[in-house]
Amino acid sequence: MKQLSISVVIPNWQGRVLLEKNLPRVLAIGADEVIVVENGSTDGSLEYLKKQVTSNKKQELKVIENERNLGFARGVNQGFKVASGDVVILLNTDVVPDKGVLIHVLPHFENPDVFAVSFNEGQWSWAKGFMSLGLVEHVPGKKVELTRDSFWASGGSAAFSREKWLELGGFNLIYEPFYWEDVDLSYRAQKRGWKVLWEPKAQVEHKHEITVGKHSLGNKKDMVAQRNQVLFFWCNITSTSMWAQHLIYMPLRLIHPGYWIPFLWAILKLPQVFVSRSKYTGGKVSDEEILAKFKS
């Protein structure tokens, strides 16, 4: 089997301080190229990156310059299209990878059925998916020392098959500005019979939501997450029994006054939902089969 080439994609917005701290350690893992998608930052990120491109003689460091902030999903999709690697590692600017992370990740991609390998962020483990009160939920599974299936691969620290990513169409923009786009993509991959794994030996340090916290949404972040949880169900689920549960329990959720806002936000995206279902929904694996993997 041919040696796999490796790209790293890092979306950046107002992250100069994090880039100065973490980019040298990303470069040290030994990828063939590192691509930073610079989303119109005004904090000097672009100037810093240009200096690094000039001074970096041993490794190809590329910068995609966007005049405005395209957002997380659009920026990442842009980076994957430019990347040349067979495997693309997606990292947030607030992620510091262990120097030997590739040793533990790349062997998994020798299996042609593997779509993604999520990294070990220390405080979290593999993700467990299940139905609860008419919607799909996910929580961290019990810590284990062996590789195992995961409900989703983190958009902040995971490796992906670039070929499969592009075949799936990348992140679905319906979830903008953030949350659930990585769950959605992982689920669509599993619908096709591809594997999403969690590798405990692929260790990174991830200081969560440093970038998300810069968005001036305040307590609306939780409502965005609630809206996107509904959109995930509407966009992906084809099971008749799961839809029956959804229709039974959603009125109970709507008893809570605060739930109406994210639900109405989801209603406003129904035209995009129909497009997503026609474009993305399908595969040889049922919803029940996917969730059954995470019952133990």
Q: In a nutshell, what does this entry contain?
A:
This protein is of the alpha/beta class. Helices cover 39% and strands 23% of the residues.
Care to count the β-strands? 11
Mean pLDDT: 93
**How would a crystallographer describe the biggest sheet?**
9 strands, mixed
- Under CATH, the topology can be stated as Spore Coat Polysaccharide Biosynthesis Protein SpsA, Chain A
Report the top-level CATH class.
Alpha Beta
- Shape, please? globular
The count of helical stretches stands at 11
Low-confidence stretches: none
- CATH homologous superfamily assignment: Spore Coat Polysaccharide Biosynthesis Protein SpsA, Chain A
**CATH architect. name:** Alpha-Beta Complex
Domain count: 1
- Class inferred from helices and paired strands: alpha/beta
Distance between the first and last residues' Cα: 34 Å
Our Rg estimate from Cα atoms comes to 19 Å
Element string (H = helix, E = strand): EHEHEHEEHEEEEEHHEHHHHH
Describe the model.
It contains eleven helices and eleven strands. By secondary structure, it is an alpha/beta fold. The strands form two sheets. Strands 1, 2, 3, 4, 5, 6, 9, 10 and 11 form a nine-stranded mixed β-sheet that branches. It has a two-stranded antiparallel ribbon with strand order 7-8. Helix 7 (220-236) packs across helix 9 (260-268) and helix 7 packs across helix 10 (270-280). The longest helix is centred in the last third of the chain and has 17 residues, at 220-236.
Q: Which terms summarize this structure?
A:
296 residues; alpha/beta; Spore Coat Polysaccharide Biosynthesis Protein SpsA, Chain A; 9-stranded mixed sheet; two-stranded antiparallel sheet; globular
